[in-house]
Structures are given as C-alpha cells and as structure tokens.
Amino acid sequence: MARISILGSAAAVSDADHDYTHFLLRGETSMILVDAGSNPLGKLQTLGIDDNQLQDIILTHFHPDHVAGVPNMLMHMWLLGRQAPLRFYALHHCANRVEDMMLSYAWDTWPNFFPVSFHRITERSGAPVLENDDFRIFSWPTKHFVPTIGLRIENKRTGNVLAYTCDTEPIPAMIELARNADMLVHEAAGKGFGHSSAFQAGETAAESGAKSLYLIHYQVWNTDPAPLVDEARQAYDGPIILVKDFDEFEF
Fold it and tell me: Over 135-156, what HEC string results?
C-alpha cells in the first residue's frame, strides 16, 4: 500500500507542535515530497528515511510556507554529500522564482553540487505532473493569491486516489479534482479570499463524493483546531480526520 506521511499540518503561522503543511508520499519503489516550507530532512531522519531515496519534489506555489525551506534543504543535502539527482515539479510561476531564489544564494558556486532539474507543469485542469511505478499525479489550478495547484494522486497498484486541494477557495475545479477520491486532504485555514473553512471543505467532500475527509493547513497560533471536525461534519457525513504532524495514512 502507498502511504502519506504528514510532515506539517499548519497554515502560514506555525507553532512548536505544528510545522507548515507539507507531506511525503511513499510507494513500493518511490518517494515524493510535496512542498518544503521548512527543511524536511530532520523529519525524514526521524521517520528513519535516508534523504538520498528522495528524488522528486512537487512545489504547489511560491509562498514562504510552501517553498522557503528549499534553500536549507538543498544546502544540507549538498553538505551531507548527496550525489543523486533531484527533480522539482512546479508551475512556471513557482519554478522560475525558486531558481531565482537559489541564484540569490549563489548555489551555482557550490562545488560538486548534485544535479537538480526543474519540470514546468502546465496551468490547466488535469495537467500531468509525473508518473512512476507507484503513482500517477495530475494537477488542477486552485483559486489562491498566486498561481497554485492542487493534486490528484492515483495509486497505480491499487487504483485508490488521494486528492489534495492545497490553498484555495471553493471552486468547481476542486469538485472535479476530488471526484470519488478515497482520501480528500483539504485545507481549512478559514473562509476568505484564497482559502476555505472546514465547513466549506465538508461541502466539497460531499459534492465530490469523496470517501473520507482529512483537514489540513489550519490555524494553530493560540487556537484550538479540534472544533474544525464538528464544523466540517455539518456539511459532510463521512469519516473526518484532523491530521497532525507525523500522522501516517495508507491509501
């Protein structure tokens, strides 16, 4: 079975117990990191994972809580002697800016740096992102402050589907993204421009026919997120889980 490991669950203001939202997909032969708002290498070590096994990273959009950890992550990999290639997948808007960010750190002068490549994703519904022996991944544009993508992740070995909305207001494209998904991982930062409430996440889960709802990217600073489950249940009667850092789920 494929597994999703939650490395962070907070929205843009994290705290000591909740890192910025990012997660790891693990199949039988591959691992894919989604976003890097902070350096994930320590968490991979805690999970007993050698970061040299990580070859693919998807960046959903160019906001600090999703990409600011990239420079430290790459620097640490380099200092630890990594030689394996690393591939990034992102929209043009994000990929261009991440490359510029790395140039500001003069990464082109780091001696014996391992190969890094950027693969630009087309900004359209159902755009292919990557495919390997374990997963087939497609993206949908969301409605956020900057160009952003949600992901539909198919487990090629079981046929199960994990849908991840990332940061977005409720829009019809998210219904398409989440259609009949076994797991819908939906943000719950709060109702407003570029984001969704837990109730709105429940509405999307119900309308899309998702089999279960996992709330992520929620407010934690001086805030108890536990009531978000009851809020979502007002709109959706399926299983609802408030994910936490280091939670792991099979799909």
Answer: EEEEEEECCCCCCCEEEEEEEC
